[in-house]
Amino acid sequence: MLPLPFGRQALPFLQLALPELRPSESIAEDRRIPYGTLICHPINSILVRTSMALSSWLCANNTRNMVVKIVYPGGRVELRDRPIIAAEIMKANPMCCVAHPDVFRQPWSVVSPDTVLMQGQKFYVVPVRTIRKLRHLHQKNTTSLNSPPGLTQLI
Predict the structure, then answer these.
(1) What's domain 34-143's superfamily in CATH?
(2) Residues 19, 25, 27, 32: what is their CA dihedral angle, to the nearest 10 degrees?
(3) SS3 143
(4) pTM for the whole thing?
(5) What is the pLDDT of residue 142?
(6) For the chain, what are the domain ranges?
């Protein structure tokens, strides 16, 4: 049980049981997770969320710029507390590339492998096939906008 900041005497009717992680259940014990990776563990108690709203807001605003946020296909998010080279992510995810968040509007915003991903930035890991499709669609849309009506252009 975690102690409440205002004590149990203030709310005797409250029964609060939070899940505790034993060392054997600890997520950090998993050897597949590289050192320096932050893992978010949500607390499922509404009372704890409301009573700790201010402190969590302060923590989130102070640490938001202290991590590199990497979003993988499928929505999995990885937070790194140190800068990382894009080539390391590409090596772990073959047939994918690292891109800026505006890659879906500007398909050329792909990061080169030697780029250092700094803290406070957000990046997407996007399959190469998706980048090719986006570039093809973007090229198709720009050529159709520039061509006169009724005239087809061969690319």
Answers:
(1) Beta-grasp domain (3.10.20.30)
(2) -160
(3) helix
(4) 0.53
(5) 78
(6) 34-143
